[in-house]
Design a protein that fits this description.
With about 160 residues, this protein is mainly β. It is about 10% helix and about 35% strand. Strands 2-3-4-5-6 form a 5-stranded mixed beta sheet, with helices on one face. Strands 1-7 form a two-stranded antiparallel ribbon. β4 and β5 form a beta hairpin.
Length: about 160
């Protein structure tokens, strides 16, 4: 979605609200497609004395697999966004400002980038997930598996005491 900001660029105190859905189901993260549902994006662009500020949030329900036990689960992801927009840059070193193209901003690109950069590299079904047994592969969250612990052969003599 392209948002036309020509009518608020030169009007201090003016603002423009936006709300749209974004389809990111084609994005792949580590071999899976966790963003299978539409991303709801909403926010406002406000002119603060000539500086355009974009504030908003992108929300979606992610379909994930636990990296410890393999259990599939869903979790809500909300990404806040706060950035400055400008018609032109005075110095080329400022990467935090998003350039407008003919008075418009491409919200799809802005929110897609923010969501990708905020994705976690590890997903756990619960903070205290115990994972799988290294011997038999049983899910340790369901209870102990019954495997006997390995004894270090260097300490076997101590077990006889």
């Amino acid at each position: 979605m392209r948002l036309d900001l020509k009518d608020i660029i030169h009007v201090p105190g003016a603002s423009k609200d936006f709300q749209f859905q974004l389809d990111l189901s084609q994005l792949e993260f580590y071999g899976s497609h966790p963003i299978s549902r539409p991303v709801e994006a909403a926010g406002t662009v406000t002119n603060h004395a000539g500086a355009l500020e974009l504030t908003g949030t992108a929300r979606s329900l992610l379909d994930l697999a636990c990296d410890r036990c393999g259990k599939e689960f869903s979790r809500e992801k909300a990404v806040p966004l706060d950035c400055l927009l400008a018609d032109e840059l005075e110095d080329e070193e400022n990467d935090d400002i998003i350039l407008l193209e003919h008075g418009e901003v491409d919200l799809d690109e802005v929110f897609t980038t923010a969501l990708i950069l905020d994705m976690d590299s590890k997903h756990l079904c619960a903070e205290d997930c115990k994972g799988l047994c290294g011997k038999c592969g049983a899910n340790l969250n369901d209870g102990p598996c019954g495997c006997k612990p390995d004894v270090d052969p260097r300490l076997a003599a101590l077990a006889q005491l």
